[in-house]
Design a protein that fits this description.
Blueprint (H helix, E strand, L loop, with lengths): L2 H10 L6 H10 L7 H17 L6 H14 L2 H4 L1
Helix pairs in contact: 1-3, 1-4
Length: 79
Amino acid sequence: MSASQEAFETIIATVPDFQPRYQSFLADWQGEDTPWYLAMGELAHYVVEAYEQGDTTQYQKLFSAVERVLQNGDSEVQI
C-alpha cells in the first residue's frame, strides 16, 4: 500500500458516510493505479455537500485526521 493510499484510508475512516462513494470511486479505477489526488477531490465534494445539507457532525474527526496525517506523513503525503 502506498503512503498516499494509507493516508487517505486513515482520513476516510473518520467519515463512514463517505464509504459508499469511495467504494464506487475505487470500482471506477479497478485495475489501474488509483489517482489519490482524485480520491481527495471526491472527499472534498462530499464535505461540501454535507455542509450544504447542514451536516457537519463528522468534520471535527475528519479534519483532525487530516492534520494528523499531514504532521506525521512522509514527503509524498505532505505534497
